[in-house]
Design goal:
By secondary structure, the chain is an alpha/beta fold. The chain has two domains: 417 residues, TIM Barrel, CATH 3.20.20.80; 273 residues, Rossmann fold. The protein contains 22 helices and 30 strands. It has an eight-stranded parallel barrel with strand order 1-4-5-6-7-9-13-14, surrounded by seven helices. Strands 20-19-21-22-23-28 form a six-stranded parallel β-sheet, with helices on both faces. The protein has a four-stranded mixed β-sheet with strand order 8-10-12-11, covered by helices on one side. Helix 17 links the parallel strand 21 and strand 22. The longest helix has 25 residues. The chain is elongated and about 90 Å long. The C terminus is likely disordered.
């Protein structure tokens, strides 16, 4: 009987080089300074962890001048915790600055470092000397993306052979110290399919994707489909013989598979964006993700596990299971990987584990880590706060590691790669190869109930839930009056939601000074009744508060624990609603936010300012009031992620950056390329606003700054805006900031 399927974990640790600049994920995710991250592995239930002891970081000037202090502490702690490491020596790296993947000394240099690692840590049993050698060789020496930036077949094969030779020599050096040491060889094995015309190219690429393993297994001999190709491009028979002389076959094959791994080739260029156009010396063709093409082959984890087992009969593990995107899709992807491993095991394959990757998330893989941007994909933890925050992925992995069945409501819907909307390109002429479970019926999913159907925020939640395939139901006040207990109970029992998002409420800040009773009914009584009803039924609740709960007396961004002191009626009702909601439903999520602007309606300051400047050339805005504006799509996506994560309590969500209203109008005009010469800054007291407001109410957070910078959001607003600026006259005349 096979042992139970294990959960492993991995920390994204790429140290890749572009030109003379190194991009270090351990610096970006903060793990280089947090020993305590390792303690979470025990709670997670991880049986092993892919862990970096990287040549570039530890011994850039050679093993005799290595600094072992960091790895001594980390590996020592893992040993204390009883979580064995799978030690990685390079991770998409090309070695220290004095070498490269094309350097004849690369293999011997890595082997020398491997020997030093084994001598210092003789108890370590699992090694990955080179992560994804084929993938790294492609991006470094065939596509020219990473150092040494070559773009030819001879360089690609030289890099690949150097990496595989380095792996073989490294394991030989390690086994001199620890004969029982195991090679865990990772690779991305995505398949290629195509139209019939390009079948010859598909055949070549499907042989090439296995070349790193075939080299290590000593299979590239005369008769191998790529033997002549390899030799013709500069690889000697003596180099190929090395892999038969030194035991180099992996002890475990690690499958790293992503939703973009499978590729589709099509000579009909007109059907695809130019960025996908390429070709060989015979044909020009588009190279796109198979998952996006109607009828194209999409292997999935199960298909690749079957192929690898049938070909090699070497134990397998999924060594990276990761999806960049929204939280529910991350959960769906990981569960699919785990189920695929279970199915392959049931069919007889020796599959050992599924690896939660990346434990701490990853930075800038949207640009293949070629620049230091700020694109972050959370993993089992989100590192954008003062300490890593567990996400729903952490809970999912722990559930599976304990042998329990995951039951998160979002898992009732298949991932986007299994849904019809994944298709961007027309059906090819190639025959369809069905992916596992592609047409499996989904069980009925419980919805998210969203109040405030006709408001800006409610409508945005409805739109974005639909785009994320989060079943939802929007209700108006006529359908459910949140201040009426009977109406609330009736709707909750009818809809049976797993969560409620309360986007309803009284929003007219100035009118609230005269309509105190109505404002209190909608902003205090309603949320309290809704919280009580949700708590009684075990339903998650998200509701919204405002920066206007603060009095503006401080000169630094307000965080969640700062004392409230509202100046006006509206702010008072929001502050009271916060307390009552969390008293009635301690697991509720209460989000303070500020100064919405969104692309789907006219009800926001940015739109009014730009329209006024466009139509009249004039606009007045307060120059003595500081806020943190919030782009509605950013707010909604982040709120949904926190809901899926099961977060509770007070959270501040606003785009990073603080501006006066006058500065916001100027920034918006500059980005929109609109003449701002008629923009006038003035004191807020001159704008005729009835309700008192704080002069400073910028929002920060002591829990995590999760939204992008304001400049980034304004740029996206200009591209995503649905409503034209010209016409309508919503901000004619003096153009004052009446929405504030």
């Amino acid at each position: 009987m096979q042992p139970p399927l294990q959960i492993w974990a991995g920390i994204e640790c790429t140290v890749n080089r572009v030109g003379d600049q190194y991009f270090d994920q351990l610096e970006r995710n903060g793990h280089c300074a947090r020993l305590e991250d390792l303690d979470h592995l025990v709670t997670l239930g991880a049986k092993k962890v892919r862990y970096p002891v990287l040549w570039e970081r530890v011994a850039p000037r050679g093993p005799d001048r290595a600094d072992w202090s960091w790895t001594d502490e980390r590996l020592g702690r893992l040993r204390e915790l009883g979580v064995p490491p799978i030690v990685g020596l390079t991770h998409h790296g090309s070695g220290p600055a004095h070498t490269s993947l094309l350097d004849a000394s690369f293999a011997e240099g890595l082997a020398e470092f491997a020997a030093a690692v084994a001598e210092r840590y003789p108890w370590v049993e699992d090694y990955t000397p080179v992560n994804e050698p084929l993938t790294t060789a492609r991006f470094s020496a065939l596509y020219g993306v990473w150092y040494p930036h070559h773009k030819d077949i001879r360089s690609f094969l030289r890099a690949l052979v150097n990496e595989c030779t380095a792996t073989a020599l490294s394991m030989r050096a390690v086994r001199r110290v620890n004969p029982a040491a195991r090679l865990v060889q990772t690779e991305d094995f995505g398949r290629t399919s195509s139209t019939p015309l390009l079948a010859y190219q598909t055949e070549h690429e499907n042989h090439r994707r296995l070349l790193s393993l075939d080299l290590l297994c000593g299979l590239v001999t005369p008769g191998h489909p790529l033997h002549e190709y390899v030799v013709a491009h500069g690889v000697s028979e003596e180099e190929l013989d090395l892999f038969r002389q030194i035991p180099s076959a992996p002890d475990i094959i690690g499958l790293n598979y992503y939703v973009t791994s499978d590729r589709y080739l099509d000579e009909r260029l007109e059907g695809y964006p130019a960025c996908y156009h390429g070709g060989n010396h015979r044909h020009a063709y588009a190279d796109v993700e198979s998952v996006r093409v109607a009828g194209a082959e999409f292997s999935g984890h199960l298909g690749l596990l079957r192929q690898l087992w049938d070909r090699y009969h070497i134990p397998l593990a999924i060594t990276e299971a990761h999806l960049g995107g929204t939280r529910e899709e991350q959960l769906r992807w990981f569960v699919e990987a785990y189920r695929a491993a279970e199915t392959a095991r049931a069919e007889g394959a020796d599959v050992r584990a599924v690896t939660l990757w990346a434990l701490l998330g990853s930075f800038d893989w949207n640009t293949l880590v070629t620049c230091a941007g700020n694109h972050y994909e959370p993993g089992a933890f989100d590192v954008r706060g003062p300490r890593p925050r567990p996400t729903a992925l952490f809970d999912l992995a722990r559930t599976l590691s304990e042998g329990r069945e995951p039951d998160h409501p979002v898992l009732a819907v298949p991932g986007w790669w299994r849904r019809p909307e994944r298709i961007l390109y027309p059906a090819p002429r190639a025959p369809r190869v069905e992916a596992a479970n592609d047409n499996a019926p989904a069980p009925e999913a419980r919805p998210i109930l969203i109040t405030g159907a006709t408001g800006t925020l409610g409508a945005a939640f409805g739109r974005i839930c639909a785009s994320r395939s989060l079943p939802c139901r929007l209700v108006s006040r006529k359908e459910m009056d949140i201040a009426d207990p009977a109406s609330v109970a009736r709707m909750l029992d009818e809809a049976s939601p797993w969560a409620v998002i309360n986007a309803a409420g009284y929003v007219r800040v100035d009118d609230a000074e005269q309509e105190r009773r109505r404002c209190r009914r909608e902003n205090v009584k309603g949320p309290r009744i809704l919280a009580q009803a949700c708590a009684e039924r075990g339903i998650r609740l998200v509701t919204f508060s405002s920066d206007l709960v603060f009095d503006g007396s401080q000169n630094k961004p307000y965080v969640e624990s700062d004392r409230v002191g509202p100046l006006g009626v509206y702010g008072m009702t929001k502050a009271l609603a916060e307390r009552m909601t969390l008293t009635a439903h301690p697991e509720a999520l209460v989000i303070r936010t500020a100064a919405f602007f969104g692309p789907w309606d006219e009800q926001n300051f940015v739109f009014h300012a730009l329209r006024a400047l466009t139509e009249t050339g004039s606009f007045h805005a307060a120059s003595d009031a500081v806020v943190s504006p919030t782009y509605v799509p950013d707010l909604v996506h982040t709120a949904l992620d926190l809901l899926v994560d099961g977060e509770a309590g007070l959270w501040h969500l606003a785009n990073r950056g603080e501006v006066t209203w006058h500065e916001l109008a100027r920034m918006s005009a500059e980005i929109a390329d609109i003449d701002a010469s008629g923009l006038v800054g003035c004191p807020a007291s001159r704008l005729g606003l009835r309700a008192p407001r704080p002069s400073y109410c910028a929002l920060g957070s002591e829990k995590g700054l999760l939204l992008p910078r304001l400049e980034d959001s304004l740029s996206r607003y200009m591209n995503e805006r649905d409503v034209p600026l010209a016409g309508g006259g919503a901000a004619r005349g003096r153009g004052s900031c009446v929405s504030w």
